[in-house]
Amino acid sequence: MDRKPTNVQKITTRKTHPSPAFARRMHTTPKSFIREILKVTENPEIISFAGGLPNPGLIDVEGLAQAAAEVFASDGRTALQYSTTEGYIPLRRFIADRYKKRLGLEISPDEILITNGSQQCLDLIGKVLIDPGDKILIERPGYLGAIQVFSLYEPVFIPVNLDADGPDVAAFESAVSGYDPKLFYCIPNSQNPSGITYSAACRKTCAGILKNTSTIIVEDDAYGELQFQGKSLPPLKKYLPDQTILTGSFSKIMAPGMRLGWVCAPREIMDQLVIAKQASDLHSNYLSQRIASCYLEESDLDAHVGRIRATYREQANTMIDAMQDALSEDVSWSQPKGGMFVWVTLPVGCPAMDVFTEALKKQVAVLPGIPFYVDGGGTDTLRLNFSNATPARITEGIERLGKVLQSFNQ
């Protein structure tokens, strides 16, 4: 009898699995360029102007800790339980009262829904209002977070260029009449990424163009409290209250890690937003809501916001002064009236992506403007964040950036 060979290796075949059949929407949804860059800039030696982080030194850790202790001591078990989808009513009442105080808006707490940051507002709005192929009017450049989340619902973006005081009015009017857009998404206060604040006249003109149309305004007011002069211009919702969804956030004035934002919408739309949120996550973090509400009841928010404005104004001025000293005359930039960003236009021969790559080698991170354009463009632009660096690091970072830009001209 033949002996079986003992030196033959057993050959196995590995099953190969086909790629998951991802939904079509995933093929049209871009990654968050900012989130990817933040991974690169975790090195503390890198001076980062790339993200949109608030100044950590302005987070009232002690005040929030005290509020948390009071919530746990007085009503901890309730604060750790499930709650209603709409959110904690005292917090919603505070937001409504602040709209009255700041902007003269008559808002009912029933028109406010607490969300997991203002980014969730955009997702819920997309779920209840956007069908594939719907036309969405958006600023050019536009907010990357809105572009990403709305892309999930497969709309057609209609970009309108921004002038120094808001949308190009002629182009805006032409887009509204020519496309009959479902939504107009805008950031009138310290627009992200450009830093532009719409003038009062531009706001009124845009509202007039949209009046008597079916277009719904999505007015993102994440930076409304951060105007350096402390003066609040009238929101679009003042002119078209039944046609406007207004969103807000505690991330810029309290703490982004608490993930608390809100959407303020007409009742008919609010009913649908609540249904969408119930299907998404039942309700926002109730413990964070309770802590925030306690903190706001016992703190002077106006004084706190005043400190933020003063600090950001100083940081913005430091960045502008450093740019005037370190950058050549063929580089131009915006003059922010609030918010957290400066928008830079590079000279010919300085591609933004190449500048980004070379700047990282000098341990300074900048954000190329390309992802903010839904139709291509921005190859010669950068967005620089000034809120998350000390004045000394801002000056040093701009000096490094200046040397990088000089290298492109040699």
How would you describe the overall organization of this protein?
By secondary structure, the chain is α/β, with parallel strands linked by helices. It folds into two domains: 141 residues, Aspartate Aminotransferase, domain 1 (Alpha-Beta Complex), CATH 3.90.1150.10; 238 residues, 3-Layer(aba) Sandwich (Aspartate Aminotransferase, domain 2). Helix content is 42%, strand content 14%. It contains 13 helices and 14 strands. It is globular.
Number of helices: 13
The radius of gyration is 24 Å
Instruction: State the assembly state of the protein chains.
Output: single chain
Q: Please name the fourth-level CATH homologous superfamily of the largest domain.
A: Type I PLP-dependent aspartate aminotransferase-like (Major domain)
| CATH topology grouping of the largest domain | Aspartate Aminotransferase, domain 2
Please state how the strands of the largest beta sheet are arranged side by side: 2-9-8-7-6-3-4-5
Give the N-to-C terminal Cα separation: 83 Å
Briefly note the structural class of the backbone: alpha/beta
The major beta sheet can be summarized as:
8 strands, mixed
Number of domains: 2
Architecture (CATH level 2) name of the largest domain: 3-Layer(aba) Sandwich
Low-confidence segments, given as residue ranges, are 1-13
- In round numbers, the mean pLDDT is 92
Order of helices and strands: HEHHEHEHEEHEHEHEEHHHEEHEEEH
CATH class of the largest domain: Alpha Beta
* Quantity of strands, as a count: 14
- Mass-distribution shape: globular
Q: Give the % helix.
A: 40-55%
Estimate the strand proportion.
5-15%
